[in-house]
Design brief:
This protein is mainly beta. It has helices at about 260-265, 510-570; strands spanning about 10, 15-20, 25-30, 40-45, 60, 70-75, 85, 90-95, 105-115, 125-130, 130-135, 150-155, 160-170, 180-185, 195, 205, 210-215, 225-235, 245-250, 250-260, 270-275, 280-285, 285-290, 300-305, 305-315, 330-335, 340-350, 350-360, 365-370, 385, 390-395, 405-415, 425-430, 430, 440, 445-450, 465-475, 500-510. About 10% of the residues lie in helices and about 45% in strands. β5 (about 60) and β6 form a beta hairpin.
Length: about 575
Amino acid sequence: VGVPRCGASLHELNKALRIELNANANCVWQIQRNANKTIRLIFSYFKFAPSSSCKTESITIYDGPSTNSPVLGQVCNDTDAVPVLQSSSDSLTFLITTNSVAFTRNFFVFYYFFSPETKVENCGGQLTGPNGTFTSPNYPKPYPEFTYCVWHIRTAKNSKINLRFQDFFLELDPNCQFDFTAVYDGLTTNTGLIGKVCGRAQPTFESSSNVMTVALSTDYANSYRGFSAQYTSTPLPGPVEPNIFLTCSSDSMKIVLSTSYLASLGYNETHLQLNDPSCHPVVTDLVIFSFSLASCGTTKKDEDQSITYTNIISLSATGGIITRQKSIQIIAKCKMENNSTVEAIYITKNNIIQNTTSVGRYNVSISFYDSDSFSKPVLQSPYYVDLNQTLFAQVSLHSSDPNLLVFVDTCIASPQPDFGSLTYDLIRSGCNKDDTVVTYPPLEHYGRFKFNAFRFLQSFPSVYLQCDILICDSNNTNSRCTKGCISRQKRAISSYKWKTNTVVGPIRLKRDLRSADHSESLTKADAEETPNLQQYSFYTLSFVVLISNIIIVVAVILKYHIKCQAGYSYQKIQSS
């Protein structure tokens, strides 16, 4: 076993390294050999300075001949595994860095070249079913050298695995640095280490779910008979799927948990608290947390074109010194993006995360106001105006978060409520496209602008407005909401956080209202005069008929009278 002080260039087919380092080390080991084989590197023991982090102390492994090669992995103080790494070629490099704390760091590393095509019989595999057995290669004869075997065990859902080694004999070492068996709670060997064993024993292990992984690693000397193992499965108690619901609106968050689910975990409502412990739930047969997005310790995070609000419910035992209950956090997230609110709940149980999602919406509206004070909204619909009258419009975001900013990005007008092919731009990408448009500076939850009333040609009676609204974090001085007018070439400079649109209308001209009133009056007057005209015509006809009859009678009398006078005048007198 070599004890290099700080770095080395290694060319042997296999080698074990016992490394001791102090503070402020920065050491590189390079493994390379023209062997046309692959390198397996195993860190079977490592001890960093107490309380060190991956940023200050670590082992970084590179898949190639230098530290400029691709990173293959990293080992640090919180690594929850026995790291076993494999190169893609015949060279590999690792760098160990330490911080300034005075402490002796210890590492045991060994590597060997091997051919991936060479298969070892009975070395690893997939094990399914409620129970089963498996053994190390060659059992009960000595296991082969330079062997790495991995068994993945999977049983039925909602069950856990109990593993028992009936016979176990590996090379003995206090730190299990040479030959060892590692058992993991999950399907990988990267995390979730339950235990590492060697020597002579009959160890047992239990998983938290229906998956478990077992790894066997051997070096080049002192082989023994290995092991024979048996696994069984048992159902998990209580409800496996968490009975939890999350609802988000533009100003609040609501988390609902069932008391039966809490009881199955060994908790009740007294064990729960939000980020702000002073916020308490309402408890019936359900436990309900309901709070505004700006309260109860809710945090806000800017992400690409979205704003996320997060709060955490912690479940922890109260009183006493020790506990055997799992540490659980319920992480509730409301994500505002692309005209919707994506709601997500994450439940963590000792690094096991489950989640659920649902959908909601931001609450945004647009209204007209009677003046630039924006104090009195116009409630009538349709809104009758004079041609060229100044109209005042305000977009409002209804949210309890005070650190949001509303920006009117685009507003178009159309004679149709479905905004078909005929539209007219008032505002586009924050730029005023109509000469009469004046936009007011963004003010918290309000976006305001004014313009002069107009009408579309071709005798369309109505005008509708549709506005695209951007919502940004007011603490971000470089957000899209602070940029104002942006041309097409510069549009990608800064991104908004949330976008939606809203519609208001119709607007109509007052003369249309007067024309309508006048037509109605004329129609009513005509209807009222029709009976009078009919009555007048009847009287006139009767009068004409009467006069005609009188004239005829007078004419007949006059004719008779004339005839009588003529007969008397011309009668001859008879003589006597």
